[in-house]
């Protein structure tokens, strides 16, 4: 089993290497790949150092699986070359997510739609992944009518540049800017570019990706995505209206029994999910579970997950695990 990690020197790429190792993925040969400027650098995997190679050389190596986290333009250009060479690509960028010919996969929700013919598989947006993992079991039971979500997304979602800006500001030094405003001691209601409808691209990703993953275009979704001065872990305040009535105890039971979900919900004991607790974990944490008393059949949830792991690297590796387990690659 040969596995390439494209973008191996970035935050998500390095996390992919860690997750592959931690989950004991059956790798015989690891192939770290990055841009020309990073070729020759070394990364560590299972205690051994490996030299980073170019995309051209990686295609020639014909890996079984290539985990991509090198940006949309690289994915659009290079994923087809890998696919033509027989490699199954799992792409973390937004390049292929809304392509009607490509599957958008969260293993706990819809891995069963994958086939051997799927050579380019899209990994969803980090904020979408954690929300659908928590909401899918409730959708199956009560049928979701509408979702209102506000996110509180960490600076690591912008990569090393975002973390660097916040740390520079904390030290009082000038450096490269990832955001149009100061982020430390501030929140910025702006992630990705603004579109013609005045929503950001990140907000519309959550709308469109959720419908595609859930396989239900009838769900009404509106989102506000916000960058907060947190190093790692995204949080979401989610208001969900259902077609059918629900029972709070049953909601907690369904969530607690769902793969990849941990319920932390004892607010009177100050027990609820926080990004500081989710960091370094692969699960999606859910708490502050309560009925919306302003209208019927509506629920409030607080959802937290590590955006570099379940929101990116771990979800991609879980897709790879499914492919191997079902002999699809």
Task: Describe what this molecule looks like in 3D.
By secondary structure, this protein is an alpha/beta fold. It folds into two domains: 2-124 and 312-325, Rossmann fold; 127-307, Dihydrodipicolinate Reductase, domain 2 (2-Layer Sandwich), CATH 3.30.360. 33% of the residues lie in helices and 23% in strands. The chain has a six-stranded parallel beta sheet, sandwiched between helices. The chain has a six-stranded mixed beta sheet with strand order 10-9-11-14-13-12. Helix 5 (126-142) crosses helix 10 (309-325). The relative contact order is 0.15.
- Quaternary organisation of the protein chains: single chain
- Estimated radius of gyration: 20 Å
CATH topology of the largest domain: Dihydrodipicolinate Reductase, domain 2
Element string (H = helix, E = strand): EHEEEHEHEEHEHEHHEEHEHEEH
Range of strand content: 15-25%
Neighbour order of strands in the largest sheet: 2-1-5-6-8-7
Shape: globular
CATH class of the largest domain: Alpha Beta
Major β-sheet annotation: 6 strands, parallel
Total number of distinct structural domains: 2
The helix count comes to 10
Low-confidence stretches: none
Percent helix among the residues?
A: 25-40%
CATH homologous superfamily classification of the largest domain: Dihydrodipicolinate Reductase, domain 2
Structure classification: alpha/beta
Q: What is the average per-residue confidence, as pLDDT, rounded to a whole number?
A: 97
Distance between the termini: 10 Å
Q: How many β-strand stretches? A: 14
Q: What's the CATH architecture of the largest domain? A: 2-Layer Sandwich
């Amino acid at each position: 089993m040969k596995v390439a990690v494209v973008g191996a020197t970035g935050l998500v790429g390095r996390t992919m290497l860690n997750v592959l190792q931690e989950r004991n993925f059956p790798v015989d040969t690891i192939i770290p790949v990055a841009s020309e400027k990073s070729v020759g650098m070394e990364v560590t995997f299972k205690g051994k150092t490996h030299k980073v190679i170019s995309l051209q050389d990686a295609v020639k190596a014909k890996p079984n699986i290539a985990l991509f986290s090198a940006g949309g333009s690289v994915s659009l250009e290079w994923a087809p070359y890998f696919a033509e060479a027989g490699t199954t690509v799992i792409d973390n960028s937004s390049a292929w997510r809304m392509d009607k010919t490509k599957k958008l996969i969260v293993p706990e929700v819809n891995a069963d739609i994958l086939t051997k013919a799927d050579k380019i598989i899209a990994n969803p947006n980090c904020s979408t992944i954690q929300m659908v993992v928590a909401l899918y079991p409730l959708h199956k039971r009560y049928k979701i009518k509408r979702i209102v979500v506000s996110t509180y997304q960490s600076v690591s979602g912008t990569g090393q540049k975002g973390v660097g800006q916040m740390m520079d500001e904390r030290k009082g030094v000038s450096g490269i800017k990832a955001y149009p405003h100061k982020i430390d001691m501030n929140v910025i209601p702006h992630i990705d570019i603004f579109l013609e409808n005045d929503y950001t691209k990140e907000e519309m990703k959550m709308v469109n990706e959720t419908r595609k993953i859930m396989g239900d275009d009838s769900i009404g979704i509106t989102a506000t995505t916000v960058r907060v001065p947190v190093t790692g872990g995204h949080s979401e305040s989610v208001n969900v209206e259902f077609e059918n009535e629900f029972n709070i105890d049953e909601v907690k039971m369904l969530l607690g029994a769902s793969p990849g979900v941990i319920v932390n919900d004892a607010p009177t004991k100050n027990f609820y999910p926080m990004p500081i607790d989710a960091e370094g974990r692969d699960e999606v944490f859910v708490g502050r579970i309560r009925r919306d008393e302003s209208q019927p059949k509506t629920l409030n949830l607080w959802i937290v997950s590590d955006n570099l792991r379940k929101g990116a690297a771990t979800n991609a590796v879980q897709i790879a695990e499914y492919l191997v387990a079902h002999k699809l690659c």
